[in-house]
Amino acid sequence: MIERVVLIKLNDENATDAGRRKVVTHAKRVLPLIAGVTSAYAGVAADEASLESWDVMLRICFARIDDVPPYIVDVDHQAFVNEFLGPRAEVKKVWNFQLDDELPS
Length: 105
What we know:
Blueprint: E1 2-10, H1 17-30, E2 37-44, H2 48-53, E3 56-62, H3 68-73, H4 75-85, E4 89-98
Antiparallel strand pairs: 1-3, 1-4, 2-3
């Protein structure tokens, strides 16, 4: 299983409780419906130390790493990133992790 971790720092206008909730709610509505996604989670920073660096965290799961490139170019993902998240985000960091027992040796 592949887990894609996305950390988002929102711009000043959207780095509010309401702004964070809007991103989380929209992500939870849109991302799980994209082809190749097996599950998707979204949450906000839970403490002040985390909030200093990041506002929102997304976890998107896939069965295999080959499912990630089609997800990236999917029209619904592109709309989420470019039209919804783009105007709200100051910084985005993304990493992919393999979680199953077939880790490289």
